[in-house]
Amino acid sequence: xxxxxxxxxxxxxxxxxxxxxxxxxxxxxxxxxxxxxxxxxxxxxxxxxxxxxxxxxxxxxxxxxxxxxxxxxxxxxxxxxxxxxxxxxxxxxxxxxxxxxxxxxxxxxxxxxxxxxxxxxxxxxxxxxxxxxxxxxxxxxxxxxxxxxxxxxxxxxxxxxxxxxxxxxxxxxxxxxxxxxxxxxxxxxxxxxxxxxxxxxxxxxxxxxxxxxxxxxxxxxxxxxxxxxxxxxxxxxxxxxxxxxxxxxxxxxxxxxxxxxxxxxxxxxxxxxxxxxxxxxxxxxxxxxxxxxxxxxxxxxxxxxxxxxxxxxxxxxxxxxxxxxxxxxxxxxxxxxxxxxxxxxxxxxxxxxxxxxxxxxxxxxxxxxxxxxxxxxxxxxxxxxxxxxxxxxxxxxxxxxxxxxxxxxxxxxxxxxxxxx
Length: 421
Prior knowledge:
Layout: H1 3-15, E1 27-34, H2 41-60, E2 83-90, H3 95-107, E3 113-116, H4 120-133, E4 137-139, E5 155-157, H5 162-180, E6 187-192, H6 195-207, E7 215-221, H7 229-238, E8 242-246, H8 249-261, E9 268-271, H9 279-285, E10 293-296, H10 307-320, H11 326-345, H12 350-358, E11 362-363, E12 373-374, E13 388-393, E14 396-401
Parallel strand pairs: 1-2, 1-3, 3-4, 4-5, 6-7, 6-8, 8-9, 9-10
Antiparallel strand pairs: 10-13, 11-12, 13-14
Helix pairs in contact: 2-11, 3-4, 5-6, 8-9, 11-12
């Protein structure tokens, strides 16, 4: 091979994220955007661990979980065993930083695809950069419904979105009344004021009348706040039986501490995932975290119905000494779906990867999620995802809804602060 031809070939392979040379390891570079410092650092660390486990399974194998796609451990077989290389970027939960980091990953790191970014507001800006550049962007966790309402060609989301999740919450309340005669007389909400919390508030406002519920008070706050005293005092004055809450980790923890300090506790807190499912929530609050009900997409007690859940969680726990959460399990799944698409594409060309994502049809028995599978509609939304509700009891998350999947009965109302052992 002439030197000029070698140079051209090396340039092509490098642009595709694949190294050349007998000693060089073939690589497929995937950019991953998450909050690794700042207020979301704790959850970001767990998401990073989930990504690293997924990449390790793809690159080096996991013979104990043969049902998991690409677990044979030979890299990506349709790319001659090329290994996944994760290129991490820290968006610090800042939408502008997320956009600039997405651009850096695409233009400087030459990644073939992007996965991220947990915070809906960051996913919105980062995916705009990917859309303009014509680079596939897969979002495993952000739930703002509007993200798949932008007519984007390059954006795909595996998680269900808030329209479904808020419906789930109200369906649960409807069935709770029908089956157990429990109906909250006064409902209030406490939501962060970013894209996710704002859209959730709008959905709650829209759906409450349809379910014959009145939200007497809606309180919003800045997600990076360091105090919630006035907001909790406003809630306490409304005297609700039920608080619907959407908070990230730091503010979820802060809210519970403030509730206790001010002697406020409704009959129930029905949370919208995020901070309430982060490992740090239970670790920091201990018994004070108990009895909260949160919407979820994953629960370890569902392993009795899907052995893959326990098999992969055991790998995660043995390495990091923690269990998956609804956040980290979705991130793991997102990277597995992206890697599967790149492998099926047999190419690192953006359009080939995009077409493979469009054609994705992964059955539920190949996932660690309690979903029917992964299949994207024309908007890039997975149509086969579904939500569950879990309740924290003795520091563990127990599935309580849908009732036919429940591992234990709902405890309602929550015991008051001075009644807890």
